[in-house]
Fold these 3 entries.
Entry 1:
Amino acid sequence: KAPTPYFLEMLTHQATYPVSKASIDKLGADWIKPGNLVSNGPFTLAEWVPNDHIKLIKNPKFWDAASVKLDVVNYIPTEDRSSAIKRFEAGELDSYDDLPTEQLADLKAKFGEQIRVGPYLGTYYFAIKTDKA
């Protein structure tokens, strides 16, 4: 037995985020709506319009709120990678986390330091269709 070197990275995965049982017990399915969602991060949910946007605002109750430099974060869903790249070029997106690896060299050449690659914790697998012989 040895320490897991990627343990802290595992804690950043959404499956390990804390959830308020008291909120779920009290609000049922509405626990995730703006104004109800309990969070312990630097932002809290202000708006959620499915297939349009998610707006987060700075959480004044965050333990280090004075160090949080952004007041608002907007998540804009994109249809596909190509659309995301076009929106990034147009200045509509500041960040995107699923760049096509086959285009990475070209994107780095075009955007320079704006393109950053970091570690990713995930699982890739093949799903084999077994309903046909």
Note: Residues 81-89 form the longest helix (9 residues).
Entry 2:
Amino acid sequence: MGAATDDRRRPAASHRDGPAPGGRTWPWITALAALCYVPLLLTHRGTLTADTKQYLYLDPAQLLRSAPDLWNARLSGGTVTHQYIGYLWPMGPFFRVAELLGLPDWLAQRLWTGSILFVAALGAFTLFRALWGERRAAFTGGLLYGLSPFVLGMISGQSALLLPFCALPWLILATRTALRGDPWRWAAVYALVVTSAGSLNGSSIFFVVVGSMLFVPYAACWERSVGARDAWWVVLRIGLLTLVTQLWWIVAYRVGGTFGLPVLEVTETVRETSSSASAVEGLRGLGYWFFYGGDNQGPWLEGLAPAFTQNVTVMVVSFAGPLAALALGWWSRFRERVFFAGLVLIGVLMSSVAFGGTDRSVVGRAFESASRSSGLVLSLRNSQRAIALTVLGLAGLAAAGVAALVRRSPRLGTATGAVVVALAAATFVAPWTSALIADRYSRSEQVPAAWRDAGRFLDRHPGRALLLPGSDFASYRWGHTLDPVLVGLTRSEMTWREVLPMGGVAGSDLLAAFDRSLQAGTIDPTTIKPVAQALGVRWIVVANDLEIERYRIQRPEAVMAALSDPAAGLELVRSFNPGYLTPANPAPVTDEKAVRTARTLPAALPQV
């Protein structure tokens, strides 16, 4: 148990080295697990969110088979893959095992989501228990970390980006233990944790590695529990083992960046990603630009995000938790509060480095300028992911305060911890009721039979297929997948146009120009067949169930009219009936395409 100290110059030992003896830990861990898993299983059964890659649910075995290959000949006429290798561990095996066990897709996804929350909360719980030995305080801090609003910006469609968030407390714990003895073993543990958390997004793991390494100067300079020489040797061991164990995906990223298309250059810029990254938002665990985004159909994260900017009660509660944590940390006087306060400060500074638009700081302007010429700097543009440091710092301050209160008055400490837990849970009430699923990214786990029929048709009739019309992301009338579902339902070669280009420069440019002229209604029918032949296409699949309003894409009847023109020289081989009929849009869009088309006709889904 910790003892308070006011000696700033030479802090005395403030706690027992390790958990206090006596008592049982498993009830607290069980409570953490219940809060992380159970609410997600109670609602929206049978519903999936468009998380990361649809092929994790449609065909995880095929995704795992193709993940090690940096060249994928099946997609877009052959393409250098972008971050596919990261699915080798841990996300790909998780969903493959779930498939082998016969778990429904929605249940497998809830278990994955719940595991992200639980591993993060358990890591914080274990870290705080190692520091202060007080279970009630560790539970308070663990829940405050695991149920942070920080997770809401990524959990519905980019959950893999939260793996570094899960890893942060474990990395700090491994660093602390390595400094206290057996450095090689704990350096290996550190490296394996990074391996499990960093393969799908290198920039995200960068921020948490920086955060975990802050414990080294704290231990050497403030805590004085290790000498400078020994501290450097621990850092070198950790760095060596971590670098060696990450080479498998670092090399893949290097190959993709060298020989693949410049993906970073066609995605969001520093100015876009930093537009919402204020220090105030970072303090409450928010600031990630995607969290605030929307399009002509409404907010992207409807049901998760709007309340944090529009509901006064939710806004007050979301600030109350961090402010309570700061107050508790100040009151505790534990020496570790210096480290956790440093995490809060560094996290806020890193996440908001480029915030401010035209009047941003000198450092922010330099960062934006460097991002225009350096791919490495541009890859760090989502600096808001450093907010994980802030969230853990606040959780640590809250846990320290509760631990100190429990020492003075167990009842007061328990009551204070309960209030902090209630504040953390209150911000999650609405997200819990939606199973952390935003409507914008939801769909039934059952894909329409017509799409499966189309996949089987292509499997029986070899040849590359072109999917039309192109769309930035796949949003269907029946749900949203982001990735085209047909790609995961067939083993045939596929090519299509989406927001991130694939394939070679010439092929992707030709496909983009072809799709653009088709959607603009200016295509010359006599060019369709030659272009298809140049792309190596045997089959053209036309989908009529896309949500055309969201991305202002061409109407399916206009696409079919162009392809059915006798001058195109194409033949309608198969329609998959009864299929999905395009319903009357409750909010019809009248634009130049509607005027040009002049009429709408239902069409079977999809047409080959």
Note: The chain has a mean pLDDT of 90.
Entry 3:
Amino acid sequence: MLPGLLERAGMSERGSITAFYTVLVEGDGTGDPIAEESRGILDGHVVLSRAIAARSHFPAIDVLQSRSRVMDAVVSRTHRKAASFFRELLSRHAETEFLINVGEYKQGGDPLTDRAVESIDELREFLRQSEDEISGFEETVAWMSRLTA
């Protein structure tokens, strides 16, 4: 039943339907059958995080859990590379965060991890946006490209 509902959106010879679906889950949503099936069917999903919101970081989008299956078809190669490296830096920092918090992280062991640790504040600032702040597409892509150069 769920695939039939979700897959109605899109283009056909009779017209097109654009849809934004919302799936509210308890906790982190992993293991929830509706959320998991929706992720498998839809072209993309944006995951909001209570932990990110608790840091007064808005919008509270968990970039590492969010996906777009159509991004490669709609952005330039340069944009795609910058976004991929941006995600890689966020991921590397997330993997190392426990060591950082307990004082066990030692700089110099891995250049990519070092860069992630050094740039995490700038990466997080890039992901924040106040309600009254306006950021254009080209300006945003240029900023991300500078952060990942």
Note: The chain has a mean pLDDT of 91.
